[in-house]
Amino acid sequence: MSNKFKGLLRAGSILNTSNKTLPSYSFSQFLSTSTSLTTTQRCYSSNNNKNDNNDKSSSSSSSNGSYAAAAFTLSLMLLPGAVAMCKECFEETPDHIIQIKTGYQYPKRMVNKDLNIDHAIVAIGNRVMSFLKINVYSMAIYIDDMELTNKNELKERANNMQVEEFTKSSKEVLDMLIDKCVGMSLKIRPTKKVTWNHIYSGLETSMTNLVWRKNQKLELVEIEEWLTDLRTVMPPNQEISTQSELDFVRNKDGKLLVLLDKQLLREIQDVRLGDTLFEFYLGSSSKVPEVRQEFYSKLWTILRNKSESVDISTIGIH
Predict the structure, then answer these.
(1) Which of 14, 21, 88, 124 is the most buried (most CB within 10 A)?
(2) DSSP 312
(3) Positive or negative: CA dihedral 261, 262, 263, 266
C-alpha cells in the first residue's frame, strides 16, 4: 500500500466517518481540486482596431491613466479565482483550430484508423491553478459524433428539450453517454514541461473520491489497486514536453486507451477508469461547470443538427 493511502487510513477510516468525506492528502493533489478551465472568447478584431484603441488611449492624461490602472488592478485583486478570466484568440485552418496564446493546433477530428478512433472536437480549454493563475495544460474534448447521432434515446432527449434544459440534465446525459458506450477523448497539451507524476497526481484524489462515493463499501486499498493500471502507464519521472500530446480515449467498449504522441502506451480493461476520468471533467462534481455546460450545449446541437463539417463556430471555446 502506498504511503499516501496509508496516511489516509491512519487519519481514520473513511468508511466509519459520519460525513462520508474523503480527505485530500498531498499538496499536489490539493492543487487539482483548486483548478478550473479559464474562459476565453473568439477574437475577430483586426490590428487596425487595436491601433485605433491605442491612439485613443494616448490622448488621456497620465494622471487619469494612473487612477484607471490602480482601479483595474484592485478589481482584479477582488475577483474570486473562479471568476477571473483569460481572454484568448483562436484561429482555424481547414483541419485545425489554433489556440493563439499557446500556439497549439488542435485537429478538428482525432483520427487513428489502427485503433478505430474518429472523434470530432467539441470544446477547447485551459486547466489552471485558479488561485495562482498558472496554466497547467491546454486541453480539447472530442466525441464520436457518428456513434452519438445513432443513439435514439439521446436524439429523442435533445429533440424534446431546449438547450438550457438539456444542459441542466448533464448528469443524466453523461450517464447515457457512458451506458451507451459513446467514444470520447481528451487531448492534453502541457503549457510547461511536466512529468507523468504531475499529471497523474492531479487526477488521483478526485478520481478516488468519485469511485468511493459510488461504492462506499470499497476499501481504499481496492481503489488503489485498480488505479495502479493508470498510475503505471509511464514511469513517474517520465517527462512530457510542451511539444507532446497526451491522449485519453474511452473507446466504444468502455476501455481507456492512453497515448503519448499518437503511440499507444496502454489499453486499460477496467471500464471504471475511463468512466471516472471523463466524469472528473464532465460530471456534476466537475470544477469546470462553464466548460461542462458548453460541452453539453454543443452535444445538443450535434444531436439536433448533424453536420459533416466542423468549424470554429460549432465548438465550445474556453
Answers:
(1) 124
(2) G
(3) positive
Maximum CA pair distance of the chain?
A: 68
256 residue type, one letter: L
- Residue in the structure block whose three cell numbers are 461504492: 215
Q: Are 136 and 199 in contact (CB under 8 A)?
A: no
**DSSP letter, residue 193:** -
* pTM recorded for the entire structure: 0.72
pLDDT in tens, 111-156: 999 999 999 999 888 777 666 677 788 889 999 998 998 888 999 9
- Exposed/middle/buried for 105, CB within 10 Å: 0-12, 13-18, 19+? middle
Whose cell is 484561429? That residue is 91
Whole-number percent of the chain with pLDDT over 70: 65
CA distance 107 to 10: 47
> Where in 14-165 does DSSP place strands (E)?
35-37, 90-92, 96-99, 104-107, 109-112, 117-129, 134-143
Alpha-carbon distance of 130 to 255, in angstroms, equals 31
Residue type, 255: K
Q: Which residues contact 300 (CB under 8 A, 6 or more apart)?
A: 158, 161, 163, 166, 167
The DSSP 8-state label assigned to residue 286 in this structure reads -
Q: Please report how many Cα atoms fall inside a 13 Å half-sphere around the Cα of residue 188, on the Cβ side.
A: 26
Selected residue with higher pLDDT from 313 and 109: 109
pLDDT tens-place string over residues 252-307: 899 999 999 999 999 999 898 999 999 988 988 776 666 777 889 889 999 988 65
Phi, psi dihedrals of residue 201, rounded to the nearest 5°: -60, -30
